[in-house]
Automatic annotation (TrEMBL):
Keywords: Signal. It comes from the Bacteria. The lineage of its organism: Bacteria, Bacillati, Actinomycetota, Actinomycetes, Micromonosporales. CDD domains: Sialidase_non-viral. Residues 1-26 form the signal peptide. Residues 283-424 form the Sialidase domain. This is Sialidase domain-containing protein. Residues 487-509 are annotated as: Disordered. It holds the Pfam family BNR_2. Residues 487-503 have a biased composition (Low complexity). It comes from Actinoplanes ianthinogenes.
Length: 509
């Protein structure tokens, strides 16, 4: 799901060319394909007037890994996307061999899944691994034909093979309340603790006007068996909402930092914005109390579009992606912004804090080609301090091309501090984004997945397929060792991404 009224104007892989001003990733090897067909193909639940189903389409992945079990990887994504919100259900996948192969497991959070909750659709999946080998999951479950909606928690104690303790953390049944953009974070300093956060929109009785949208929190202290009653941790003024709440946890100090986008509208119609900015609140007592909001950066993101046709792209604009250095506690926030283009189009921007979020740097541009728009960043920090970011851009699009939208997928890394993203690698063949599902714009997800284990980065992301209306997108995985540019010796020992389990073909059908 997305923020309410942000933009008033919006009520086989085909290789299209790999020309670039930067060096592609070493070996130009393809990633591992994780998704293989839909376990919900026979499900007929969730249809509503005006809805379009995209069968076989996967979007919006999240990924996590155990620090103590480096060979294990767990991911999750939306499966069979609807045009007007959510999907048939959510599917997770786990690997025991460092991401060479994956096994898929449907999450029991919607009616399409075996033993699933009694909801017609599901959305916004998130995973986070904590001490003791526990993986925590978060999902949004809701109906298309009634206002009933819920934030759902679930837990795996066996590395993603099975999911238990499926819990409706909050349930609303009226049009005047809607829960959105949830995430979950395991606490590395407090075994058994994890935190679910989301925004809860408070609307008029008919659901057409926005009154407020505070941030809510629910906590488990018993490894996901039970969750606390939700409570507000970020109050909002009249006609204000948060969106994209995500917590990062400091394994050394135990501090928690919740990041979100704060939007102040001028009135309940939410058609005009007074201010929009990224903010953060801090807790030093395991989530019991929280600081007042700190402004992190202005949100200068603009609507992403196909520059040749004006077609809307639904991307990660307005969604913050934070990370923390596990050794120093330095904080980072990656986001889409137009500071470096005078508001013309988005770049990938990064700000950082070295004083526990009290003050923040000016933005740094992350993406390699400043002449084209870039979107949907994900960020993670390795144990050695390397800062990794994945994103998409349109550098291979040529003027006059109105039939395809060649889109590239990138990984870039900077030494600790995030000041020098001068090592960029292409991690998938160029694909045509016009083949992606339509959900208020061509849609791959409001976010993609990136995690670390030790000095290794692990990415889970979506690309589009051409000529496959029954399978418009797929989920892929790749990983890299440290590629720190801090010393010539470090650069010389740069390791290529892992070889794939299967190779993509330009003529794949």
């Amino acid at each position: 799901m997305r923020n309410w009224g942000r933009f008033a104007t919006v009520s086989s892989i085909v290789v299209l060319g790999l020309t670039s001003g930067t060096v592609a990733w070493a070996g130009t090897r393809d990633p591992v394909q994780v998704s293989h067909g839909s376990p919900f193909a026979a499900c007929a639940v969730g249809a509503a007037p005006g809805s379009v189903l995209y069968p076989g389409a996967e979007v919006e992945p999240s990924v996590t890994a155990h620090r103590s079990r480096p060979g294990e990887v767990v991911g999750v994504w939306q499966q069979d996307r609807w045009s007007d919100g959510g999907a048939h259900g959510l599917v997770s996948a786990y690997s025991r061999n460092g991401g060479k192969t994956f096994t898929e497991v449907p999450w029991p959070v919607s009616r399409c899944a075996p033993g699933g909750l009694n909801y017609e659709r599901a959305s916004d999946p998130w995973v986070s691994a904590g001490p003791g080998g526990v993986v925590y999951g978060s999902a949004l479950a809701f109906d298309a034909n009634s206002p009933r909606n819920s934030v759902v928690a679930l837990t795996s104690y066996d590395g993603g093979r099975t999911w238990r303790n499926v819990t409706e953390v909050i349930v609303d049944t009226e049009l005047s309340r809607f829960n959105d953009k949830n995430s979950v974070t395991a606490d590395p300093a407090r075994p058994g603790s994890a935190y679910q956060v989301w925004d809860r929109l408070e609307l008029s009785a008919d659901g057409t006007q926005l009154f407020a949208g505070p941030s809510l929190l629910s906590i488990t202290r018993d490894f996901g068996r039970t969750w606390s009653r939700p409570r507000v941790i970020v109050e909002t003024a009249q006609f204000q909402q948060t969106i994209g709440n995500v917590i990062v946890a400091d394994p050394r100090s135990g501090a928690l930092y919740n990041f979100y986008d704060s939007i102040q509208f001028t009135d309940a119609t939410a058609t005009a914005i007074q201010f929009i900015r990224y903010e953060m609140v801090r807790s030093t007592d395991g989530g019991r109390t929280w600081s007042r909001p700190v402004v992190v950066a202005d949100d200068t993101g603009v609507q992403d579009i196909d520059p040749n046709t004006g077609a809307v792209l639904r991307t990660g604009v307005g969604i913050p992606f934070p990370a923390i250095d596990p050794r120093t506690g330095e904080l980072y926030l990656a986001y889409e912004g137009s500071d470096f283009t005078g508001g013309a189009y988005n770049q990938i921007q990064l700000v950082r804090s070295t004083d526990r979020g009290r003050t923040w740097s000016a933005p740094t541009r992350v993406n390699g080609d400043p002449a084209v728009q870039a979107f949907t960043p994900s960020i993670a920090v390795a144990d050695n301090g390397d800062v990794g970011v994945t994103y998409y851009d349109l550098r291979t699009l040529r003027p006059g091309n109105v039939t395809t939208l060649p889109t590239s997928t990138w990984f870039t890394v900077s030494p600790r501090g995030g000041r020098h993203f001068d090592r960029e690698r292409q991690i998938a063949p160029v694909f045509d984004m016009l083949q992606a599902p339509q959900a208020n714009g061509y849609f791959l997800g409001d976010y993609q997945g990136l995690a670390t284990v030790g000095d290794q980065f692990r990415a889970l992301f979506v690309t589009a397929n051409s000529g496959r209306p029954d399978n418009r997108t797929d989920v892929f995985y790749t990983e890299s060792g440290s590629v720190s540019a801090r010393t010539p010796a470090a650069a010389a020992t740069e390791r290529a991404f892992t070889a794939p389990a299967r190779r993509l073909s330009p003529t794949r059908r």
